């Protein structure tokens, strides 16, 4: 295989994305709600956090796999991403060098990107945290990256412990990031609304002083030997 064809094969320009309508529908829910109804799976490791608690992101994933400390493939991803996309980078939890900073985040924002999520380090954190473009990262480092190692754009990836395919939905907020497989988003959105309605009603009960304890807890305590039969709290 020639160098040109090898390079081409590492950048997939054509992916099927979760629809804008489903992105909009999912974006109104907390990542925690979506994670619960998705079976309590699909979340990135808690080390990946937003630079500001007010940041929230939702959109189809552009996946990027890089060698630690090198951001060449991220530049390629920024060039092919479409408005509304979220760049999701498998940075190997390497914090030795920042993979992006203010310049690349500004490029992504002006190009219409929805956000950047990196299992790795970023820099210019003060400027990024004050801005309105969502950036999630595993840590910070002032050291800049190299741009000399091939990576992969838009291939199935594992990012901070979560499996993710190009075009899958990613939603991130102050609690962290959850991935929803593209084909499952409509079902998850429907379940999320039901859970939100139930939780809203439960909180209203508690605030009124009605049934402060959850209705299920004594049964479960007995089932696992924490309460004897007939014993009550």
Automatic annotation (TrEMBL):
Its cofactor is Mg(2+); a divalent metal cation. It comes from the Bacteria. Keywords: Magnesium, Metal-binding, Methyltransferase, Transferase. Coiled coil: none annotated. The keyword Metal-binding applies. GO terms for biological process: methylation. Substrate binds at residues 101-104, 123. Mg(2+) binds at residue 124. It holds the Pfam family RraA-like. This is Putative 4-hydroxy-4-methyl-2-oxoglutarate aldolase. It comes from Candidatus Burkholderia verschuerenii. The lineage of its organism: Bacteria, Pseudomonadati, Pseudomonadota, Betaproteobacteria, Burkholderiales.
